[in-house]
Write a structure and sequence with these properties.
This protein has about 160 residues and is mainly alpha-helical. It is built from nine helices and three strands; from the N terminus they run ββαααβαααααα. The chain has helices at about 20-25, 30-35, 40-45, 60-75, 80-90, 95-110, 115-130, 135-140, 150-155; strands at about 5-10, 15-20, 55. A three-stranded mixed beta sheet has the order 2-1-3. A hairpin with a 5-residue loop joins β1 and β2. It is elongated, with a radius of gyration of 20 Å.
Length: about 160
C-alpha cells in the first residue's frame, strides 16, 4: 500500500512534532480516525495523508516518542519470532512508574490495543508480586484513606476471596 510510506506529522501536548511513516501510525485507531483514513479499500486508494500536523493534546512528547518506538518496532518486526517480540516488549515496559502510567493513558487515548495490553499486564505483574494490600499501597505510593473500622468491614465483605 503506497500510503504506508507517506510521512505524517504528529504533534504532542508540549508542541513537539514527530515525523512518522503512516504505516507505523496505523497501529493507532485514533490517528487513523483523525487522519480521516477510510475503512473501505477502494476509498483508501484515493485518500491522501494530512498535510498539517495531527494534534495529540493529551500525550506529552517524551511519551509519544516511546509510543512511536513501540509502533515502529512492531511494524518493522512482524515476522520476528514471538519470543523475540515478547523479550523486546518486556524490556520496553521496564520504565519508571510515571512513564508506565503515562504510556497506559497514551495507549488508551491513541487506541493501540497491544501497547495498552502490554502496559496493563506489566502493572498487573507488579500487583501480583505484592502479597498484601499494604505492599500494593507501598509499591504504588497509594494513601490508605480507610479508617480501621472501614478496613475491617471491607475485609469481612470480601472474606470469600481470602479463602483458598
Amino acid at each position: 500500500m503506497a500510503h504506508n510510506d507517506a510521512d505524517i506529522v504528529l504533534r504532542s501536548k508540549d508542541e513537539r512534532e514527530f515525523k512518522v511513516k503512516f504505516g507505523i501510525a496505523l497501529m493507532s485507531e485514533t490517528i487513523k480516525a483523525l487522519a480521516s483514513y477510510p475503512e473501505e479499500v477502494e476509498e483508501q486508494e484515493e485518500w491522501n495523508p494530512p498535510q498539517s500536523a495531527i494534534p495529540l493534546p493529551p500525550v506529552e512528547g517524551n511519551i509519544l516518542e516511546k509510543v512511536i518506538e513501540y509502533c515502529t518496532y512492531h511494524s518493522e518486526n512482524q515476522e520476528a519470532k514471538e519470543d523475540e517480540r515478547d523479550a523486546w516488549d518486556k524490556k520496553f515496559a521496564q520504565v519508571d512508574d510515571d512513564t508506565l502510567f503515562s504510556l497506559i493513558l497514551a495507549a488508551n487515548y491513541l487506541d493501540i490495543k497491544p501497547l495498552l495490553d502490554l502496559t496493563c499486564k506489566t502493572v498487573a505483574g507488579y500487583i501480583r508480586e505484592c502479597k498484601t494490600p499494604q505492599e500494593i499501597r507501598r509499591r504504588f505510593n497509594i494513601k490508605n484513606d480507610f479508617t480501621p473500622e472501614e478496613e475491617e468491614e471491607v475485609r469481612k465483605e470480601n472474606a470469600w476471596c481470602e479463602e483458598r
